[in-house]
Amino acid sequence: ADDLAPFYHTRKWKYLIDFNTEIQDVILDLIKIEPGIAFTESYLKAEDVAEDTKDFRYTIHPKLHKQEADEDFEIIPYSQVFQDKAPFCPNLSILDLLLNEGPETVSVLKASIKQAVKGEQ
Questions:
Q1: pLDDT tens digits along 65-74
Q2: Coil/strand/helix, residue 17
Q3: What number of other Cβ atoms are within 10 A of residue 1's Cβ?
């Protein structure tokens, strides 16, 4: 809670990208993952993205009809707060997973990677 509280109680970020980048860094640190994240210098159209690059821009989108499935990810149900009253609700957020599973977050994420992709790593 102490690590995440500043994101909900202060308004020190002028731009959403700054907020998102900083909270992403905190979450990655909490779950001890160090992915290689690189930002583009300018906007790239989908057709200009290299063929061997994963483009996740439309995997999460507020308009459901614009979302694209991540073929390498399979949702693995985990314990949620009201599971005795409601069925598992997928695709909430990494915070839902982290706050419900704590140290098991990485295990759930690893189990969610489809077998074909695991073999490539």
A1: 877 778 888 9
A2: helix
A3: 6
How many whole angstroms separate alpha carbon 114 and alpha carbon 72? 5
Spatial contact of 30 and 3, defined as CB atoms under 8 Å apart = yes
C-alpha to C-alpha distance for 61 and 101, rounded to whole angstroms? 25
At 44, list the tokens.
Answer: 């790239």
The token pair at 97 is 């997973």
- Distance CA(30)–CA(2), nearest Å, equals 11
The CA-based dihedral angle spanning residues 37, 114, 28, 54, taken in that order and rounded to the nearest 10 degrees:
20
Contact 97, 78 (CB under 8 A): yes
